[in-house]
Design a protein that fits this description.
single chain; 167 residues; alpha+beta; 4 helices; globular
Length: 167
């Protein structure tokens, strides 16, 4: 059983601990499905003020819901639609302070107010996204972006993506 301490200290120190915990959590396991599921759960446990944490994966040209923690979610998202689809289209992290002000936002949970979406890039190919929502406006900032991108890089480096890359 894994139980993670809530980090104290600066936001940076909290994220550094979260990344160390991720390495420990994934050590010896490379299965992409298991690692995505545990990562979604880990983020939900260690991040404050969030209401949804999970993954969408590319399948036949669109994003399809993957492992997550939170309320039931939209199953399919076209590239270029909503925050997740826009992150895929642009190939970059999307940090949205107020989702209600984002043109074309897809509201899966009406309580969500801010969102960060980080593309999952494996061997130069975007295979999906990490999506985290918060009920708090402006919950995410540049520090969150920097460390969540590092979190994703760690996840990618410790996971075997065979099977996902051929979708």
């Amino acid at each position: 059983m894994f139980q993670f301490e809530q980090a104290s200290g600066t936001k940076e120190e909290q994220y550094e601990l979260a990344i160390k915990q991720l390495r420990y959590l994934l050590e010896g396991e490379t299965d992409w499905l298991a690692n995505l599921a545990n990562s979604a759960s880990h983020l939900a446990e260690v991040l404050g003020e969030t209401n949804w944490s999970g993954f969408y994966l590319m399948k036949q040209g669109e994003l399809v819901l993957g492992p997550f923690i939170g309320k039931a979610a939209c199953v399919r998202i076209p590239v270029g639609k909503g925050v997740c689809g826009t992150a895929i289209e642009r190939g970059e992290t999307m940090l949205v302070e107020d989702v209600h002000a984002f043109p074309g936002h897809i509201a899966c949970d009406a309580a969500s107010r801010s969102e960060i979406v980080i593309p999952l890039k494996v061997n130069g190919e975007i295979i999906g996204v990490l999506d985290i929502d918060s009920p708090v406006v402006s919950r995410f900032d540049q520090v969150d972006q920097k460390y969540l991108e590092q979190y994703v890089d760690t996840l990618i480096s410790m996971t075997d993506w065979t099977g996902v890359l051929t979708r």
